[in-house]
User: Fold these one by one.
Assistant:
Number 1:
Amino acid sequence: MTLRKQRSKTPARAVRPNPRDATLEAAARRRIEADSLLSASGTLLVAVSGGADSIALLHFLVAERARTGRPDSLAVAHVNHGLRGADADADAAFVRERAIAWGVPFFESTLPRGGTSEDALRRARYAALVSLAERADASCTATAHNADDQAETVLFRMARGSGLRGLAGMPSKGRVHGLAVVRPFLDVTREQVLDYLQRNGVPHRMDVTNQSLRPARNRIRHEILPRLEAGVNAGVRKALVRQAALFREADEYLEVEARRYLEASVLERGDGKIILAATRLLDYPKLLRTYVFRCALQELNGAIRDFTTAHLDALLSLVTQSSGRSIDLPHDMVARRERGRIVLARRFREPAGLKRPSKT
């Protein structure tokens, strides 16, 4: 028996995990370092509602600034939706008080009462944050989305039939409705957030609407995920987060490949249009064709958030159909089949007030 085999039979001494590795601070710092989330210079705007997650994020970033000297400066943004009356005003006052106490400039926006759908409120909130970022001269905005939010997002999108990109969940940095966003807490669990607040004696506000089962996301949080944990997999939240990371890797790889194949398919580009060779697209697998169209639309429009699976399926149908068919797309765009070509173009719109000369 060799020495190597003897060693393989010797029980290895158990290594006890360091409790500090399971804290909010450790998880957030690993994410920040891995994705260089705080490397940009300038002011970082922190979106703070007053709830546990966002207050923990603000407190953590203030402590990190003192510990490391970054980011250069912080500012707080609070968006008052105006839907909960005195409670909403109390949230704003609480966040303002915390910001002053921790030496961080405070910026607030109150939304006009209007649409109350989840999507409408989300869009209004991000529009307000864009405005607040301009007022604060901030280059980026930090939000407190955490690992539990990520799991809920993936399950929600899976139920709605999202594609690969949707199942990748929220990235740690990107742009949302024109706002540059970073998410330092994506590896932090809600349990770690509450532990952090307790250890540091940090108070936070409670939003009773988060307990309502009317919004779909709240039903996922309070009913569906707990049932999955109890009856299917106790670690379902971690599993969903891991799956999101795998989907994101696949999505990023396919996008890189698609940009290569897009260049090989382009017959003409310019003047707000891209013309693709339909016969060449037929040589590509269907999934890759989808990504080629995504890349072309992003090049023309700058973003593809409003382009749904139905829009992409319609574009795919143009590859195999005859000439003369056209498809209306979001953002005043149109796609049409012309013989062996697929034309993606912006519609021409006359400037407001410009009238065509009348015929005499």
Number 2:
Amino acid sequence: MRRPSPLPRRLRRAAIALVSLIGVLAILFVSLGPTVESSVRPTAGDLATAREVWQQLKVDRGTGKPTRVRIDNRAISGLAVLAGDATGLARFEGEVTGGVLSGKASLALPAGLWINASATVSGVHTGFPAYRLKVGRVPFPLVAGRWIAHLGRWMLRLRGADIPPLDEIVRRVSIDRQHVLAELALPKQGGLLRGVLAARGTNLNDSLVSEIYCRLAAEQRATPVANLSQLVRRTFDPAQAAATEEYSRAAFVALSFLVVGERIERVAPRAAELAKDCPRPNQPFALQQREDLAMHWAFSAGLTAVLGGETASSLGEWKELDDSLPNGSGFSFVDLAADRSGMQAALRALDRATVANAVSELGRVTEDDLLPPALLQAPEGLSEASFADSFSSLDRERYREAVASIDQALALQRSLGAAGD
């Protein structure tokens, strides 16, 4: 009589062991709620603070020389708010108190679960500092903080990110009672950004971006067009376009290369490098007779293709908040409408369920489809004080209602366009 195979029993044991391991890890690292309670939207003041820090960093960027940066609690708080707003899934906070820099992060998981982490660092450090790290209920030894940071860099480099050794980026860190003093040598443009894109897993076909861009640039040199809608129709011409997410992603990036230029090339540096042999026609494009609106639409669509809709939406709002500061052109809901139109067009063309219809619509789109004329009457030129008086802040109901009305107008125009076809 044949004995039953021991394999099923071994599989059951392995499954039980795996489930037990997952349970233990969940108990150790996963929480039912966030330790960073608030999820605050940025203000114009946060943008001003970030600009101040950025101005410090720009001095010697890419030269190999370290730049000295001085950051106080106001800057730490502002940068933490911006970081959380950009990710959409994580919350951050930090402060310097009594000579200790402390930071917390809460990462949202499905089913209302969270991973919470905290870190502290103090004193003076040459190179990337050693810091105390706690994830969930597990405190790590002091040396583990550096190991984990180096492991993260190594993983990003495996995905193609050109990130120098951490001790080359962070030359010195000193923490006094109220400030962080750091000497940083940031790599040349593109290295850190490639790391961010690699971490997000963006699946951009750089060769296809270059191919589409070179075709559009050649067509523009041969037969120039001035309206953004004409360029969009060329980009998604049924004779040239494929109704796939891969083509749509590459097409929006290529289109934005043509309309916006260097600013969008920074988020797709490899594609820009491949496309550099195709001269960019020096021909501006307009949307509703305004060049700035064409740039807003194309930039937002390109950002959505590379970074996702949530990040593109946040960056568009940050731009308007920054414009509300002194010497800016003011917060513009018309600009914001163009941003949201470009973002939504990209999202529909990047969704497997809607890509075929979206590409077909873009192949025959009109100027009014890209930005309905009614939205040109939205408020513009608002100073920081005027925006606060009328809408309070980005996380208040009055502002959300204003954005919702923009989205409703865009949805109505799409439905009218579809009915007209």
Number 3:
Amino acid sequence: MRGPFSRPSDILLLLVARGVRGFGDGFAAIVLPAYLVAIGFGTAEVGIVAAASLFGSALFTLGVGMLAPRHELRHLLLAGAALMVATGLGLTGENLIWIAVVGFVGTINPSGGDVGMLVPLEHTMLARGAADRERTKVFARYSLIGALSTAAGALAAASPDLLVVAGIDRIVALKLMFYAYAVLGVAAAALYRMLPQSRGEERHTSAPLGASRAMVYRLAALFSLDAFAGGFTVQSLLALWLFERFGLSLSAASVFFFWTTVLSALSFPLAGAIARRIGLVNTMVFTHIPSSVCLIGAAFAPNLAVVLGLLLVRSALAQMDVPTRTSYVMAVVTPEERAAAASVTAVPRSLASSISPALAGALYGMPFSGLPLLLCGSLKIVYDLALLYTCRHVKPPEESVEKV
């Protein structure tokens, strides 16, 4: 069955809004550190602003998940879009404390990934609008659009260099990108404004998490383990390993990581098709385990060609759990709990993934430099097996229907 809005145009509005936000996040994550350096700050100050942004994003995401069950989602989306506008305008300041505060309370995302207060709201609205059998396909499209728009935004981050060539001051050119980010916030608000309001009975519930609380907490713990493991092989550290162990050039690395991003993005719609045949949890687990095996193999691979081949195969498999994971969480909780469940499962992931990169930095310098890859792959396999065991009896509605 469908939720309170079933017109295809309503889901389309959310998908377009995701693309608008992703494009802004794509260039903002690159422009922000460049801007801070341009106005006289160093790597320490960039780290402070990034940390403030990530921590603030986690808190606001958790907070909005708690508020959403008692408030109109459309209004909260509009408030988030307004905050996106204010963030773009606020980042044009040149005081470090001011920029850090704007990063903390605003929507800027230094990681470039899909995190922030608007994510659980969009997930909830999408789940309400999609039929059970179409839900995973919708989230696959959502993830695909997010990945491709963020990649396009990253390309747009080169715009200040072009403006400088045209004679515009570099700091002014960088500030123009923040104004563009604010304009994208206006565009997102216009899209959200066209969404229908929720029915009254879907709001003002007594608690953000009720009957599904235990399951959501178990999933949050498992997803945190997955995110902690992934932090050992974040893109910057993996690139560093390829540079130092195999002498990969910067230009070759840029081409390689472009294709890993493309393969990951293209795997999202494929995940939806696979989930229809074998189920959401099985899709998460049985595509994830082979990707982890490829990563472990790369740690011991004898030459660059083998390493790159294994990592490309891993990229084609490793992200299939993204839309299926979101769809599963939305399916196994009550409609009133969806926003809270989305935030409670997302925030610990963000916090866990921020811990392991610091540990990995030291491990990459050890005699066996592939140890972080081995740890990442091994921990992810543990996560997959634990997920399969935990969810073995908890089926989404489309998989619980008795076959006749």
